[in-house]
Design a protein that fits this description.
The structure is a single chain. By secondary structure, the chain is mainly β. It has no helices and 42 strands. The protein has a five-stranded mixed sheet with strand order 7-16-15-10-11, with no helix packed on it. Strands 18-27-26-21-22 form a five-stranded mixed sheet, with no helix packed on it. It has a five-stranded mixed sheet with strand order 33-40-39-36-37, with no helix packed on it. One of its GO terms (molecular function) is axon guidance receptor activity.
Length: 410
């Protein structure tokens, strides 16, 4: 209880840390616990007096710094020449004053602006164009007359950065059994600096390294998520986030209830080829009538098996020439001529030409500069495994040459 009596005047009367003004206002400065109590205001004139009592309680709090990392000492890795923001949010009563101290002893008040460093009014320290020489401990101090609090940030500067990446594939699908064994989902990512890992469960729960939740455990260091005694209840998509200062990458595991194999048939018209490929395809090369019959594909896993049969008929036709030059081919001397020959058949026939001198050539025949020496019989041959066919064109007939007194006319 304060028993001092203060009387107002026009200029304001001062006594210790109190000021009473002419209008009756009482100003209490630098309040402390000792100033708590009842304050009575008296007003009187020639007709009488009146009084009003005010009870004052002093509330005070020591400074406290709230860190997004949840610790008063933190380590941060930044990339060379980037911009970094260091937060320092302080609470207290009276409101504390915030000051930053750099690794080389420079004190930065709030607010501050100079060079590459700036302290914003909310206490955040901004570092622009980070250099290797900026490495060390940055200390934030929040202080009022009741005490102080501090936040230490140890800064490390990396010269190069590399976004985290996963070996392909980035998405994997795994089968779940009704009463299965333990499963370990690996999250192997590379990057500079070394990435930190975070797992997101199908229900949206985030699991940081070292965290254990029911039958889930996120190992420290290597990013592996271990699921004990898996069952159908564990189905869903599990996300692993690998993050460093250069950004983040994501790998997904889709856990699905196991099913027995299901074979999807191909179209009714198919090519049979006998080579077994890794995707389950059976190739039968150079088919013949002996390859006809029923081919059965069987797929098996731990949940059962499925079969699919293909009845195969081998169709064979001997060659038949469907387009060939006429029986007599006439050309102009020196003009190129093309002899086409087309044949049908199963398997597809091979085409060749037998020339007048018994020389054999493959494919369509082109004579660039025909002359009398090219006259003769040209034979088109079509051949496959079942048989042969041929057609001939007789010689290259050329128009006669007429002699004239003034020259030669064709």
């Amino acid at each position: 209880m304060i028993n001092n009596a203060l009387q107002s005047d026009d200029s304001g009367t001062r006594n210790r840390c109190y000021i009473i003004f002419g209008n009756g206002t009482l100003l209490l400065q630098q309040m402390g616990k000792k100033d708590e109590g009842n304050y009575t205001f008296y007003a009187k004139n020639t007709l009488g007096e009146d009084a009003m009592k005010v009870s004052v309680q002093v509330v005070s709090n020591l400074p406290q710094i709230s860190s997004k990392y949840g610790r008063t000492e933190n380590k941060i890795l930044a990339v060379y020449y980037q911009t970094l923001l260091l937060d320092c949010k302080a609470e207290g009563m009276p409101e504390p004053q915030i000051t930053w101290t750099t690794p080389y002893g420079m004190s930065l008040p709030t607010p501050y602006l100079g060079g590459r460093f700036q302290v914003h009014r909310n206490g955040t320290l901004e570092l622009r164009g980070i250099r290797k020489t900026d490495e060390g401990r940055f200390l934030c101090i929040a202080k009022n007359y009741l005490g102080e609090a501090s936040l230490a940030v140890d800064l490390e500067v990396a010269s190069l950065d590399e976004k985290p990446s996963f070996p392909v594939p980035n998405t994997e699908v795994l089968s779940l059994e009704a009463d299965g064994d333990d499963i370990s989902l690996e999250c192997r990512a590379t990057g500079k600096p070394k990435p930190e890992f975070l797992w997101i469960l199908p229900n949206g729960t985030a699991m940081s390294p070292g965290m254990k939740l029911q039958w889930f455990f996120h190992y420290l260091g290597n990013g592996t998520l271990h699921i004990m005694q898996t069952g159908v209840i564990d189905k869903g998509v599990y996300q692993c986030l690998a993050k460093n200062v250069a950004r983040q990458a994501e790998k997904r595991y889709a856990l699905e209830p196991g099913q027995k194999p299901h074979i999807r048939s191909t179209a009714s018209t198919m090519k049979i080829s006998v080579t077994y490929l890794s995707n389950g395809t059976l190739q039968v090369k150079e088919t013949s009538e002996f390859d006809r019959g029923s081919y059965t594909c069987k797929a098996t896993n731990t949940f059962g098996s499925s079969t699919l049969s293909y009845p195969v008929s081998v169709m064979v036709f001997p060659p038949q020439i469907t387009h060939a030059p006429p029986s007599i081919t006439r050309v102009n001397r020196g003009s190129p001529v093309i002899l086409n020959c087309i044949a049908a058949g199963i398997p597809k026939p091979d085409i060749s030409w037998t020339l007048p001198g018994c020389t054999t050539l493959e494919g369509n025949l082109v004579i660039k500069d025909p002359g009398l020496m090219n006259s003769g019989i040209y034979k088109c041959n079509a051949r496959n495994a079942v048989g042969t066919d041929f057609k001939c064109t007789k010689g290259l007939k050329m128009p006669p040459t007429i002699w004239h007194l003034n020259g030669i006319f064709p």
